[in-house]
Amino acid sequence: MVEFKATVINEIEKLYKKKKIIVAAIVSLIFIVIGQLAVVGLRSGFGLRGTSSMEFPILVLSVVVNTILPLFTALVTIDSFSGEFSQNTMKIAITRPITRLKFFTAKIVAIMLFILTNLLFVMIFSIIAGIVFNSNSFTFQGIIRIFVSYIVTVLPMMILVLLIATFTNIIRSGVGVFFLSIFVLIILKALEIIFSQYSGIIFTSMFSWYNLWIMNSLPILKILRQFMMMCSYGILLFTFGYYLFDKKEF
Fold this sequence. Notes:
This protein is mainly alpha-helical. The model is unreliable at 45-50 (pLDDT under 50). The protein is globular, with a radius of gyration of 20 Å. It contains 11 helices and no strands. 32% of the residues are buried. The protein starts with a helix and ends with a helix.
């Protein structure tokens, strides 16, 4: 367990030192600012109600989770695997006194912590922006709903990480993995529209499962069903991804 903890910390440090983390934070902040300015502009220019301080962070989440978050998740995951493959630094890493399973898991954990940190960053600044421009609708219950929405979003993002990690162990080129990931996401989104009656089994449709958690009456069965489905995807992708990683020669 000590070795695993040390490896996780090392992977977090490697992610922290990469510029992608700073870029993700800046782009997320720009999204928040542009979003709030757009809301204010609509409210003052066209007389529309806009969004309350509690609705704005959910609006930001709906945009981020379908745009920049998957993009930066893909970039960080590819860099964590394919980047080290191409730089031949993976050979040094696997010579440490730790099993490949723990090493693979440590990388996934570090990426998930990056996603969680990014989500919390967006949540905090979107709440601040919402309160600054419309403090009258601020409620403690609203804060809880927002917090839950952002936290549960980590789970579907984990499926995306495992899928891309699997691709990195099939294709050595980071650029190839990136374009394959984008292509697969576009195909899955298209399938959601074409076969809307079966969209519930496509994991990209679960990016917005946070909506189930903020309903006035929680659909427990639907939440449980999607949770079990994401767990199934996660187990399959983790197993397959680790199998490829374990058999890979560096």
